[in-house]
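hiii, so i know i said id send this last week but things got crazy w the move. better late than never?? heres the sequnce for the chain we talked about at the cafe, plus the structure i predicted for it. fair warning i was half asleep when i ran it
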Amino acid sequence: WDEADSNDKLSCQHTLHEVLETVCKLVAPVSPFMVDHIHRNLTGVSVHTADWPLGVPGSLEGATADAWDEDAAMATAILPPQDLGLEDTMTLVRELAEAGRRIRIDGARRQRLPCAQGWIVAGPDLSAFHDLLAEE
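okay and structure toks below
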């Protein structure tokens, strides 16, 4: 690096900082410890508390808002539809599994020993999740 603070040097450093910060956010799920160390040195905060990087319309030279909208529409079309009913049902299944674990702990029963039977008295039909609950 040249010792003088030229516009080229400052632009290069800013670009490098932005790229490193974004790459850290993208790689964090794969390599959490190393990128957290790098991100903390860059920003002073953990990468795991940072927001996921999103593109900014018009941030690339020659990019247009129309192209951005097309990319966003394509990304939305690729993603599977969100099933809120399934998410609510899985939340209930997790709560039931945790309740079963608490009953075993309170009854001083072994955690991994299978139960012969169990009943769910009321609520929605969870027969599709029988095997999942039976494992717990």
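btw DSSP finds five helices and no strands in the chain. thought thatd interest u
miss u guys!!
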